[in-house]
């Protein structure tokens, strides 16, 4: 056997002994896997790259910090701008330069430095009793402070992320003094102490405890899909209030690439896939939300709730006001 032949065989043996690295992307998600798994399966079918989703109820930032550079997570998925921005401010993400992402994600729905990218939006709307509130009677968020609503409003805790985002948006438009006045006035109009989730407020309208409530749009779809909650949904209409001089408050579901990202290139491929117009429409339809890529449309059911103009402020601005919004909510003793 020649030296050349021996060397060739030795290299072949080493190649056989070295396992081929599996192509995969690991996702930490605050969204339940059932909501995103169909799209992950479609990505795998198209690319051959497996996607592993770990569902976390809480503690995402703490887990990423503890794992450090050894973290297996490539992407994080979450809802609410404060949670997305929180991962960025914790220095746990990295920027992504991608034409596909910037073309499909409008500037108001992505981080100015490309650390996070929105995928779908939901509007923070008023659910109004069909029997006790006239169509179009609620037009602005400011109007919720009007004394005519005294004893007629239901809402969840003012310290919940969805409520804090709305208060932060109000703060952006009106400043601290007027925001505090608004919080106190809305509190004085409550029919009961803040409690429960957004669906619980609609149930309270159905039961006659209040006439209007604040909630995210997608809960209407979820209630209509649940036979036990359809009567609640059918007792209300969806009203799209605006800020005076602005639009309807929206929040996002979105994604970010982790700083560790052991499978960075495939993770970016997944991000680009999810940001594509078709994938956004599927994702939005599954969750009764609104896709944000240019030229995309919400599902017919969602479109049937009405149209609106989203407030034109970059959501990072809203996220940075969250601490002040919480402080004002506590000063107003909103949940007290």
Secondary-structure blueprint:
Elements: H1 3-17, E1 24-29, H2 33-47, E2 50-55, H3 60-67, E3 75-79, H4 81-89, H5 99-104, E4 116-129, E5 153-154, H6 161-188, H7 198-206, E6 212-216, H8 218-224, H9 230-234, E7 236-239, E8 250-257, H10 264-275, H11 277-287, E9 290-291, H12 300-303, H13 315-320, H14 322-331
Parallel strand pairs: 1-2, 1-3, 5-6
Antiparallel strand pairs: 3-8, 4-6, 4-7, 4-8, 4-9
Helix pairs in contact: 6-14
Tell me the series of helices and strands, N- to C-terminal: HEHEHEHHEEHHEHHEEHHEHHH
| Beta content | 15-25%
Structural class: alpha/beta
User: Residue ranges: pLDDT <50 for 5 or more in a row?
Assistant: 1-21
Question: Major β-sheet, in short?
Answer: 9 strands, mixed
Radius of gyration: 23 Å
Bulk shape = globular
- What is the averaged pLDDT score? 92
SS field, number of helical segments: 14
Describe this structure in words.
With 336 residues, this protein is α/β, with parallel strands linked by helices. The protein is built from 14 helices and 9 strands. Strands 1, 2, 3, 4, 5, 6, 7, 8 and 9 form a 9-stranded mixed beta sheet that branches. The protein starts with a helix and ends in a 5-residue tail after the last helix.
């Amino acid at each position: 056997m020649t030296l050349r032949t021996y060397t060739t065989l030795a290299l072949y043996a080493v190649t056989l002994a070295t396992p081929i690295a599996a192509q995969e992307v690991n996702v930490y998600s605050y969204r339940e896997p059932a909501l995103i798994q169909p799209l992950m399966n479609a990505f795998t079918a198209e690319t051959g790259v497996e996607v592993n989703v770990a569902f976390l109820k809480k503690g995402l930032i703490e887990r990423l910090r503890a794992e450090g550079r050894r973290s297996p997570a490539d992407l994080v998925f979450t809802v609410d701008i404060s949670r997305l921005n929180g991962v960025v401010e914790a220095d746990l993400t990295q920027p992504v330069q991608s034409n596909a992402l910037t073309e499909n994600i409008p500037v108001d729905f992505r981080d100015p430095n490309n650390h996070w990218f929105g995928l779908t939006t939901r509007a923070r709307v008023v659910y109004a009793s069909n029997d006790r509130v006239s169509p179009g009677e609620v037009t602005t968020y400011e109007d919720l402070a009007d004394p005519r609503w005294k004893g007629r409003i239901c809402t969840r805790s003012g310290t919940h992320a969805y409520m804090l985002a709305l208060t932060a948006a109000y703060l952006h438009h009106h400043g601290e003094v007027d925001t505090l006045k608004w919080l106190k006035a809305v509190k004085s109009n409550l029919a009961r102490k803040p409690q429960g989730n957004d669906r619980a407020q609609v149930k309270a309208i159905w039961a006659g405890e209040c006439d209007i409530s604040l909630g995210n749009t997608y809960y209407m779809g979820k209630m209509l899909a649940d036979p036990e909650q359809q009567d609640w949904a059918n007792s209300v209409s969806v009203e799209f209030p605006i800020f005076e001089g602005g639009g309807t408050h929206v929040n996002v579901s979105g994604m970010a690439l982790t700083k560790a990202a052991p499978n960075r290139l495939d993770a970016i491929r997944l991000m680009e896939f999810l940001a594509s117009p078709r994938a956004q429409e599927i994702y939005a339809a599954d969750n009764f939300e609104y896709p944000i890529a240019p030229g995309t449309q919400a599902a017919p059911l969602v479109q049937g709730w009405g149209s609106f103009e989203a407030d034109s402020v970059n959501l990072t601005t809203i996220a940075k006001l969250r601490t002040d919004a919480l402080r004002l909510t506590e000063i107003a003793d909103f949940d007290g």
